[in-house]
Design brief:
Layout (H helix, E strand, L loop, with lengths): L11 H33 L4 H50 L2 H7 L1 H25 L2 H16 L1 H48 L1 H6 L3 H27 L1 H26 L4 H42 L20 E8 L9 E8 L4 E5 L6 H6 L9 E6 L2 E2 L5 H6 L1 E4 L8 E2 H5 L8 H10 L3 H6 L7 E2 L8 H14 L4 E5 L7 H14 L4 E5 L11 E6 L2 E6 L1 H7 L1 H10 L6
Parallel strand pairs: 3-10, 3-11, 6-9, 9-10
Antiparallel strand pairs: 1-2, 1-4, 4-5, 7-8, 11-12
Length: 573
């Protein structure tokens, strides 16, 4: 928790004023039993109505001042807690954006979502309750004990015995439950991950009739979370009855000894009532403190989890150069090898390849051979573990990563659109693009016809993940988004898999006519998409088994010939 306190520094004033007003409220509350004792001993006992009215008015005044103080304290506490949570979530989100793909792969999406939602909310709640109760509750407990000594020192020894016993119970539960809450939050990650997989893969699950299996898997993960939550919940829940037991035992002793002393005349009825009220105040505040401790325990566990994410190094150090792309070849792979974290072997092995301006490079090979890995090294989504990837003659590690990626247009395997409009999605490529540039990109991507047919045209709505478009339409819109940028390097990572052969052929023709000086990398499973590429690299198990034109590879590369023959009738060949 200490590592996150820097996010509270802008709210120092609120963090001071909130507890101060709570202490002010508590101070007025401590005077209430004395006023009631005065009403009993001086007003009721002697029949002094004026004194009763006077003390009653004082009680109302104390209540009103206490109410105003409580509302003011709550305002400052809520402002500090919500501001702290907003700053924390922003910092975590920004940090997650800075992490390399390899680090994000290791963390997992479900873990990152839990940190930003459930964990951050728990920490916010803990901060709010801490500002409101952390000083108030101990102040009331020890203040009530002090006031009890002022009322009657002989009876106050009961408070001196009960309070240490209560403190032992509360802090014992704290030390026991903190590690258990951490484990519970880890189980929550598992449930979130299982749920996310089911939601994302619902079509596949139904297609293979795996609903029952997935339900069993979710129930198992949820049962483990429930088991841990119930266990730690039982421990926390035991705090309240134990504190009630101790305080009620103290109350019994106080009433027994107090009644004897009232009969003996050494203690007045009002003083006994005041002592009982102080004991009741201690009971209420310790229950609040127990709930606060539970909340703080959860918040501390969640804060440690959030801090652990903030402490993760981005994984890649960005350079400082701005890409000029003047030297030839524009893109160069020099004996590049790539190994994913915790992988058993290399995804790419000793790849050497050059791409000049205006050239189209095709990448083909069996599933899992490293095609996507190869092109993801160019915008530096991953770093090569051996060798060097150069753009414009300069190692990509020396460039400012953000500036490098502004010069590269990437169309990923999975077409991803964002809620908004067609225009807002296309402007991701170039925020300054006008309508003519947008329509030009749409025409090249073979998307102009269906965009024009939609009500609103460029301003037609796009739902989350583009679910109001077909798979082929989403792919064409993502291609258009990359083309709007007019990049120096265009990467199409199997981005036409949902297109029919005629549309794919029209797209390839349009790209050849409009790409200009850009170096184009086309990753595809279809040989037809690469027939007109200047060069094609054939990958197998991460190694280049062939490089050349379509005609050259048909003669020299058995794997390419096999892929080609499997996709075209031999009569046509």
């Amino acid at each position: 928790m200490k590592r996150l306190l820097k996010f509270l520094s802008p709210y120092t004033k609120e963090c001071v004023l909130g507890p101060l007003f709570k202490l002010l409220e508590a101070t007025f509350e401590l005077f209430v039993p004395l006023v009631i004792a005065s009403i009993i001993d001086r007003g009721i006992a002697s029949g002094d109505t004026a004194h009763i009215w006077k003390m009653g008015a004082l009680l109302v005044g104390l209540a009103l001042v206490g109410l105003v103080s409580a509302i003011t304290a709550q305002f400052f506490a809520a402002k500090a807690a919500t501001g702290f949570a907003a700053s924390l979530k922003t910092a975590v989100f920004s940090h997650l954006q800075s992490l390399s793909f390899s680090v994000r792969d290791r963390l997992g999406t479900s873990t990152m979502i839990t940190r930003l939602t459930s964990d951050a909310d728990q920490v916010q709640s803990g901060v709010n309750l801490t500002l409101r109760l952390f000083l108030r509750s101990p102040f009331i407990v020890f203040g009530a004990m002090l006031m009890a000594f002022l009322v009657d020192a002989k009876a106050a020894w009961i408070f001196a015995v009960a309070i240490p016993l209560l403190a032992a119970v509360v802090f014992g539960v704290i030390l026991w439950t903190i590690p258990l809450y951490k484990k519970t939050q880890t189980n929550l990650d598992g449930v979130t991950g299982t749920l996310r997989e089911n939601l994302n893969g619902v079509r596949v699950i139904r297609a293979f009739r795996k609903e029952a299996d997935e339900e069993t898997r979710f129930v198992a993960a949820n049962a483990e979370l429930t088991k841990r939550s119930e266990f730690v919940g039982r421990i926390s829940a035991a705090m309240n009855p134990v504190t009630y037991l101790i305080l009620n035992a103290a109350l019994i002793v106080l009433l027994q000894t107090g009644a004897i002393r009232v009969n003996a005349g050494s203690l007045t009825q009002g003083e006994l009532v005041a002592l009982v009220n102080y004991l009741s105040q201690i009971l209420v505040e310790l229950i609040k403190l127990a709930n606060l401790i539970i909340s703080m325990t959860k918040a501390a566990a969640c804060a440690d989890r959030i801090a652990s994410v903030l402490e993760i190094e981005p994984g890649m150090e960005s350079g400082a150069l701005t890409p000029e792309h003047t030297a030839e070849p524009l893109v160069s792979f020099e004996h590049v090898s790539m190994t994913y974290a915790d992988a058993g072997g290399e995804a790419l092995t000793d790849i050497s390849l050059d791409a000049k301006r205006g050239e189209t490079i095709g990448v083909i090979g069996p599933t899992g051979c490293g095609k996507s890995t190869l092109v993801q090294l160019i915008p530096r989504f991953y770093d090569a573990t051996k060798g060097c990837v150069r753009v414009g003659g300069v190692d990509v590690k020396e460039y400012d990563s953000q500036k490098l990626r502004r010069r590269i247009g990437v169309v990923p395997q999975k077409a991803q659109l964002f809620a908004g409009t067609i225009r807002s999605n296309l402007l991701w490529g170039n925020p300054d693009a006008d309508d003519d540039a947008l329509w030009e990109a749409l025409r090249t991507a073979q998307a102009a016809e269906f965009v024009a047919s939609r009500e609103g045209g460029l301003d037609a709505p796009v739902e989350q993940n583009g679910r109001n478009f077909s798979g082929g339409q989403r792919q064409r819109l993502t291609i258009a988004r990359a083309l709007v940028r007019k990049p120096d390097i265009l990467i199409l990572d199997d981005s036409a898999s949902a297109l029919d052969l005629a549309t794919d052929a029209a797209l390839q023709k349009a790209l050849r006519e409009t790409a200009g000086e850009a170096a184009v990398f086309i990753v595809s499973q279809r040989a037809a998409s690469l027939l007109h590429a200047d060069r094609i690299i054939v990958l197998e198990d991460g190694q280049a088994v062939g490089v050349g034109t379509h005609e050259e590879l048909l003669k020299s590369c058995a794997l390419y010939r096999e892929i080609y023959d499997s996709q075209f009738p031999k009569e046509a060949v």
